[in-house]
Amino acid sequence: MKRLGFAICAGVLLLAPTGNAAGRFDQKLTADKQIVQVLNRMTFGIRAGNVAEVRRLGVDKWIELQLHPERITENPELEKRVQPLDTLQMSMWQINEKYQQQPQQQKPPQRPLQSMLTPLQISKLRDGGTLEERREVLASLPPDVRSQVIASAPPEALEGLPEMQKEADELRKPAAPAIKRDVLTPEQMRIMRNGTNDQKMTLIDSFTGEERKQVLRSAGPQAFNGLPQLRREAMAASQPQQYVNQQLIENKLYRAIYSNRQLEEVLVDFWLNHFNVYNGKNQIRMLLTSYERDAIRPHVFGHFKDLLLATARHPAMLIYLDNNQSQAPREDAPALDAKGSPARRPGINENYGRELMELHTLGVDGGYTQDDVIAVARAFTGWTVFDPGHYAEFQFNPGVHDRKEKLVLGHLLPAGQGEQDGLDVIEILAHHPSTARFISKELAQRFVADDPPQALIDRMAATFTKTDGDLRAVMTTMFSSTEFLSEGAWQAKMKSPLEMVVSAVRALNVDAIEVQPFAERIANIGEPLYGKVEPTGYPNTGESWNSNAGVLGRINFAIALTSGQFAGIKPDVSRFNFKTPAAVAEELLGIAPSQETIAAIEKSVEGKEATPSMIAATVLGSPEFQRR
């Protein structure tokens, strides 16, 4: 009951009005606030020693270094964490060749949804029902029917329902073969079920070859929580495609937690979200490692046009938005197939053309028309993927390209250009004034405020235009602006689930041997990594994150983290021994907390034994920590 009371109190704190609504964008922050501001906006959270480092270098010098990550010595701890992640450096064909095939398993045929649900229920699940409507439909079903529906439901039916997404993953994965008793003795089976980590490690190491794989496959990755290397090995044996995706998630979290090149990691996350692809569609899960490594990361400090082209040609994007299937209609295509049935006729798919303008470049109000959408889609016909199940390489197929002339945003593309049509469109969009404004506003929303001043956006757009879309130059304009280090920007942003979880880990200096529990909590709070179905990506503004369920998830995570409930994760709260709540809050926030926060923390522990973990959890649940 005490714990519940604490959670409710912290929840009230978080939902209270926060931020600096009265702050002005022309009012400069104090020197101490400027240090915390750059750390909160340009990193995934303040670690011990960060404030002193920025104070020693000076804010301007520290920003300059972050804009040039090649000048920063990387943290050897990060290199140690990511070294076991073997898929990170594999090409797409290597990943496909090694991890594409799932273990074969006969399954009973699934009943169609139509036989288990009413038309209204199907409509709510498939056709954009609200979160509560979809939750209500699934909760109303008998357990056996519910399991079958969840296992066969399309991804959009479970969007925003992480607990049901997790259940679906469990239901869909192949059943592991039972461990034969001639492989494990009864005592060894007891160890696999209930043994310590050391006992499990010793037992697994006593097997080699196929026997080791069978034992790991049968036990499953969940048997090795707190033993990341064995968990990965078990996942590779039982769920190879999930293994590839899980390594990418681990890499993201390790880099966010440990990298000294924090701005680079923040920008990789920002641009991945801007050019979102969903890991649950077709074989995209196998392509995302290359997408992040080859299409996104090399260009975050470069020219926007290069980033745009790299994403346009990557198989992950081409498959996600169906451009690999887009073909010019053939006038000579037969009306009937060999069996006399109506033939499937090739046609143009507008998905990529539309999202390229609406989400990637011009913005929804960028001045394009439906005719432009069609013309752009025609320009990209033939941009496809060679052997997606194996080599998965970009290919231009002239045989399905629309060879006729096209008019895009007033620019005439002559007939017969082939692949050059798409390249011309990239050039047109990258240099369009609407793109300069849209990209500048997106960056300002991420780093300054949900509603950034128009004057700042205009200056950033002018830099974008003058420098041919040099993203480093655009960010320099933003970071050197009065608005970025102003009272108007102070605590004006709410942290996303990813930012909240990682910033808490960094604030506590957690020794994150294992990061899988963090990924699960981030998903539960509402942001499954690489798991956003829609091409919009996750919200760039804060109102979407301030829900009751999200607030409770944040509070529960803070309690679990500070009390050491995660296997393989070691928070050190002993440094808070014998310190006042105000002193603990200052260490975690990087600056003296407000009187309102101190009073609220003291009230939340009133009448209780104020342990260091309880005080730390209360601070992590406070409005000042939840905002950046």
Trace the largest sheet across and list its strands.
1-2
Largest sheet: 2 strands, antiparallel
Strand content: under 5%
Average pLDDT reading: 88
Number of separate helices: 32
By helix and strand content, what is the structural category? mainly alpha
The overall strand count is 6
So what's the overall shape? globular
Helix content: 40-55%
The value of Rg in angstroms is 26 Å
The low-pLDDT segments are: 1-19, 103-109
Task: Measure the end-to-end span.
Answer: 31 Å
Describe the structure.
By secondary structure, this protein is mainly alpha-helical. Among the domains are: 1-18 and 494-628, no CATH class; 113-172, no CATH class; 177-238, no CATH class. Helices cover 52% and strands 3% of the residues. It contains 32 helices and 6 strands. The chain has helices at residues 2-15, 31-42, 50-57, 59-66, 76-82, 92-99, 119-126, 131-139, 143-152, 162-172, 186-194, 197-205, 209-219, 228-238, 240-258, 262-274, 288-296, 304-312, 315-320, 351-360, 370-379, 420-430, 433-447, 454-466, 471-479, 497-507, 516-525, 548-562, 581-589, 595-604, 612-620, 623-626, and strands spanning 383-386, 393-396, 406-408, 411-413, 511-512, 569-570. The strands form 3 sheets. Strands 1-2 form a two-stranded antiparallel ribbon. A two-stranded antiparallel ribbon has the order 3-4. The two termini are 31 Å apart. Mean pLDDT is 88; it is low at 1-19 and 103-109.
